[in-house]
Automatic annotation (TrEMBL):
Predominant location category: membrane
Pathway involvement of the protein, from the record: Phospholipid metabolism; phosphatidylglycerol biosynthesis; phosphatidylglycerol from CDP-diacylglycerol: step 1/2
Membrane topology: Multi-pass membrane protein
UniProt source species: Candidatus Enterocloster faecavium
Gene Ontology CC annotations of this record: membrane
Enzyme Commission numbers on file: 2.7.8.5
NCBIfam families associated with the record: pgsA
Catalytic activity: a CDP-1,2-diacyl-sn-glycerol + sn-glycerol 3-phosphate = a 1,2-diacyl-sn-glycero-3-phospho-(1'-sn-glycero-3'-phosphate) + CMP + H(+)
Record protein name field: CDP-diacylglycerol--glycerol-3-phosphate 3-phosphatidyltransferase
Keywords carried by this UniProt record: Lipid biosynthesis, Lipid metabolism, Membrane, Phospholipid biosynthesis, Phospholipid metabolism, Transferase, Transmembrane, Transmembrane helix
Summary of the function given for this chain in its UniProt record: This protein catalyzes the committed step to the synthesis of the acidic phospholipids.
Superkingdom as given in the UniProt entry: Bacteria
Pfam families with a match to the protein in the record: CDP-OH_P_transf
Length: 137
């Protein structure tokens, strides 16, 4: 996540922001988080329903972006989506550490991540619903 943030700053500073980067950057984050979450289910560190919510949101947003892309529109990551990713990654790290003193913190961070997952989904749809209804933003 730190390298992701650094990459974004460099791209903006040197005017290297591309539509490809706007699409691939969030996709790479999704693959990383979803892979870790699925492993955590197998390790019995995480209930499956949490992962279903998170992965469902990712499929919905990816589909939404695909429709937008077909209409010539690139939907960049939102601030809610970025906050969601930070909390998801923090939750994954805390759950992987599996340390007793961090158990409550892990659950709180995970809860915030799930809430932000839903909030960011609603935010994307609210801000970009015209892509589905009118073909443009």
């Amino acid at each position: 996540s730190l390298t992701d943030m650094l990459d974004g700053k460099i791209a903006r500073k040197y005017n290297l922001v591309t539509n490809f980067g706007k699409f691939m950057d969030p996709l790479a984050d999704k693959l990383l988080v979803c892979s870790a979450l699925i492993c955590l289910i197998e390790l019995e560190q995480l209930p499956a329903w949490v992962v279903i919510i998170i992965i469902s949101r990712e499929f919905i947003i990816s589909g939404f972006r695909l429709v937008a892309s077909d209409n010539g529109v690139v939907i960049a990551a939102s601030y809610w989506g970025k906050f969601k990713t930070v909390f998801q990654m923090a939750a994954v790290i805390l759950l992987i550490l599996d340390m007793e003193p961090l158990e409550l913190l892990s659950q709180i961070v995970l809860g915030i991540a799930v809430i932000l997952t839903v909030v960011s989904l609603v935010d994307y749809i609210a801000k970009n619903h015209k892509v589905l209804t009118e073909g443009s933003i």
